[in-house]
Specification:
The chain is of the alpha/beta class. It is built from 12 helices and 9 strands. It has 2 domains: 169 residues, NAD(P)-binding Rossmann-like Domain (Rossmann fold); 118 residues, N-(1-d-carboxylethyl)-l-norvaline Dehydrogenase, domain 2. A 9-stranded mixed beta sheet has the order 1-9-8-7-6-5-2-3-4, with helices on both faces. The protein binds NADPH dihydro-nicotinamide-adenine-dinucleotide phosphate.
């Protein structure tokens, strides 16, 4: 996997430079933020959405509402899709596939790497270039150089359209395999969902003990914000296959995880998440890793059930 992250700020084009016209299909919260960013930066924007009324505020600001998906594809070479998933892409593009030839389809909808690769093949077979994207910011971060989006697909198409795509966020190109952007996106979401659920679990325990979320805010920020040091420490060791235990022995971690589970049970709150954590720790113990670091659990996770 090649990784090359741009750290360039989203810069304004030079005075008089021609801004590339762009089509945006899909006006959910994300698509709306994208249209807003393109209009703000002076791009001509053609839009299409299944529910046309969502286009009205943008038409009032100068966007063109295409009469059909075919017309939206025909309006511009660069077509950005912001849809719920790849099924929505097929629902829209299948009936309009004659209009795909010669377009550059940039699908910024989230889905699995496999569905992204299949979607890339489907679009490419119909004569268009295909770039996949994984947006790592909520709509409020669109238009900011502090936000970033993973891209993958043909390097030439990415290089040609990079400046326009960087109106939305920084562009972080991952490589030619179209599944890579989705893979990096899903890796991020893996960490995001479990981390945030850990916070909800902590809040539930706090609530059962008469504390509000704000009462544990400094503690939560210190605990979750302090994970960077652990990440730095463990990644090199994991890649080297080193799991020697020290103060982080699995046996100690299992006892701690069980204390967490029992604390939740005593408080009468939901125990699904802490029970799953204990289950993983116990499997590591059964596999004989009690004296190893709890990072040895990653080896269990690598194995398919
Ligand atoms: P939404 O699900 O709200 O957007 C849905 C868009 O897809 C709408 O334009 C909707 O049309 C259209 N759509 C859905 N299904 C179909 C279909 N079968 N046929 C035609 N159109 C369809 O998502 P968001 O705008 O929030 O996000 C867009 C993408 O960006 C998603 O893949 C999401 O995972 C990703 N993303 C979103 C983030 C966020 O915070 N929102 C953050 C990072 C990524 P209609 O208006 O008619 O319903």
């Amino acid at each position: 996997m090649s990784v090359s992250a741009s750290t360039a700020a989203v810069a304004s084009p030079a005075a008089g430079a021609v801004r590339q016209p762009v089509t945006v299909v899909g006006l959910g919260p994300m698509g709306q933020a994208m249209v807003d960013a393109f209009l703000e930066r002076g791009h001509e924007v053609t839009v299409w959405n299944r529910t046309p009324s969502r286009a009205e505020p943008f038409v009032a600001r100068g966007a063109v509402l295409a009469e059909s998906v075919e017309a939206a594809l025909g309006a511009n070479e660069l077509v950005v899709l912001s849809l719920t998933d790849y099924e929505a892409m097929y629902a829209l593009l299948e009936p309009a596939s004659d209009a795909l030839a010669g377009r550059v389809i940039v699908n910024l909808s989230s889905d699995t790497p496999e569905k992204t690769r299949a979607g890339a093949r489907w679009v490419t077979e119909r004569g268009a270039a295909f770039l996949a994207g994984g947006v790592t910011t909520p709509p409020s971060g669109i238009g900011s150089s502090e936000s970033s989006t993973f891209y993958s697909g043909p390097r030439g198409a990415f290089d040609t359209h990079r400046d326009t795509l960087e109106v939305l966020t920084r562009a972080d190109y991952q490589g030619e395999d179209p599944g890579l952007a989705a893979l990096m996106y899903q890796i991020g979401m893996t960490m995001f969902w479990t981390s945030m659920l850990s916070l909800w679990q902590a809040v539930a325990l706090a609530d059962a003990n008469g504390l509000k979320a704000t009462d544990i805010l400094p503690h939560a920020q210190e605990t979750l914000g302090g994970l960077g040091g652990f990440i730095d420490f463990y990644t090199d060791r994991i890649d080297a296959g080193r799991h020697e235990g020290d103060v982080d022995r699995l046996a100690m971690g299992t006892a701690s995880a069980e204390h967490v589970l029992h604390t939740m049970a005593d408080a009468g709150v939901d125990t699904t998440l802490p029970a799953a954590v204990v289950d993983i720790f116990r499997r590591g113990m059964e596999a004989g890793h009690e004296a190893d670091s709890f990072s040895s659990l990653v080896e269990l996770m690598k194995k398919k059930a």
